[in-house]
Write a structure and sequence with these properties.
Layout: E1 8-10, H1 23-31, E2 36-43, E3 49-51, H2 72-75, H3 96-106, E4 109-114, H4 121-135, E5 144-147, H5 150-159, E6 165-169, H6 176-183, E7 187-191, H7 197-205, E8 210-213, H8 218-227, E9 231-234, H9 237-240
The protein binds SN-glycerol-3-phosphate and magnesium ion.
Length: about 250
C-alpha cells in the first residue's frame, strides 16, 4: 500500500455518525480510531476553499442555492449540522484551512477530494494546493489529493507536485498507462461496485493501489480486501474495521 494510507478511511469525515464534511465528523472518526479522513473541497463565490459535497447548499445546510454564488461571509454562519440531528445543530461549514488544522490536531491523515463547482476546476485545484502549502506542516505526510476532474488533478500536479494524487472514477478507465503518464497518480479510487480482482491486479501491476468507495458493511469490505484493495472509504468505520486483514 502507498505509504501512510490506512485500510479504513472515514468518508466525508464519518458520514453515518456525524454531519458530512464537518469538524464534528472528523472528531467522530478520530474517536473510533480512524487514521485518515476524506472530505470534499470546493470554492465560495469569492474563492474561499470550504468543505461541501453538493454544488448547492440545500441538502446539508440551512442555506439555499448554489455554493458558487455565495460569498464566504454568507456561508460562515450557516448551520451545517441541524439537518443531520439536533445534537449537531450549530455545526458550521469548515474552511479547508480549518479542516486541515483539525486533522493535524487530531493526528488524522487527510484525503482532500477536489470537488469543483461547474467550470471552476483549475481555480479550485490551485486554491486547494495553495491552502495545503500554507497550512500543512512540512514534516507531516502531505494530504492525498484526489478528484473526478482530470483537469483539477493536472493543475494539482503542476502547483503541488509534492502532494500524492488519487484518480477518482466511477468505473475503471480503459487506458491506465496513458493516465499514469500524464497524471502520475499514487492511487486509484473506484466505486466498489465496479471493482473485481482482475481490476485490482491490473492496477497493482502498474503500482497503483486501489481504494474503494463507499463501503458500509463488513461483508462487502471483507470481499474487497480479499480482492486486494488497499483501503475502503466508509461512512461507518465501526462496521468495517473488524474485517481489516491482519497486518494491513
Ligand atoms: O473520494 C471518494 C468518494 O468521496 C467519491 O464520491 O461523491 O462521495 O465524493 P463522493
Ligand atoms: Mg468525496
Amino acid at each position: 500500500m502507498m505509504r501512510d494510507v490506512p485500510p479504513v478511511i472515514g468518508h466525508r469525515g464519518a458520514a453515518a455518525l456525524a454531519p458530512e464534511n464537518t469538524l464534528a465528523g472528523f472528531r467522530a472518526a478520530a474517536r473510533l480510531g480512524v487514521r485518515m479522513v476524506e472530505f470534499d473541497a470546493k470554492l465560495s463565490a469569492d474563492g474561499v476553499p470550504l468543505l461541501m459535497h453538493d454544488d448547492t447548499l440545500d441538502r446539508t445546510t440551512n442555506g439555499r442555492g448554489p455554493v458558487r454564488e455565495a460569498p464566504w461571509a454568507a456561508l460562515a454562519d450557516l448551520d451545517a449540522g441541524g439537518w443531520f440531528g439536533p445534537d449537531f445543530a450549530g455545526e458550521r461549514i469548515p474552511t479547508l484551512t480549518q479542516a486541515l488544522d483539525t486533522c493535524c490536531e487530531l493526528g488524522l491523515a487527510a484525503n482532500v477530494e477536489i470537488k469543483p463547482c461547474p467550470g471552476r476546476a483549475a481555480e479550485t485545484a490551485t486554491a486547494v494546493a495553495e491552502t495545503i502549502r500554507q497550512v500543512w506542516p512540512g514534516d507531516r505526510t502531505p494530504p492525498l489529493v484526489s478528484s473526478f476532474s482530470m483537469d483539477a488533478l493536472e493543475v494539482a500536479r503542476e502547483t503541488a507536485p509534492w502532494a500524492p494524487r488519487g484518480v477518482l472514477r466511477e468505473t475503471p478507465a480503459t487506458d491506465w498507462d496513458v493516465l499514469s503518464r500524464s497524471l502520475e497518480p499514487a492511487t486509484v479510487h473506484l466505486n466498489w461496485r465496479a471493482v473485481t480482482a482482475t481490476v485490482v491486479a491490473a492496477l497493482s501491476a502498474r503500482s497503483l493501489p486501489v481504494l474503494v468507495y463507499t463501503v458500509n458493511d463488513a461483508g462487502t469490505a471483507r470481499r474487497l480486501f480479499g480482492m486486494g484493495v488497499g483501503g475502503v472509504f466508509t461512512d461507518d468505520p465501526d462496521a468495517v474495521m473488524p474485517v481489516v486483514p491482519e497486518g494491513a
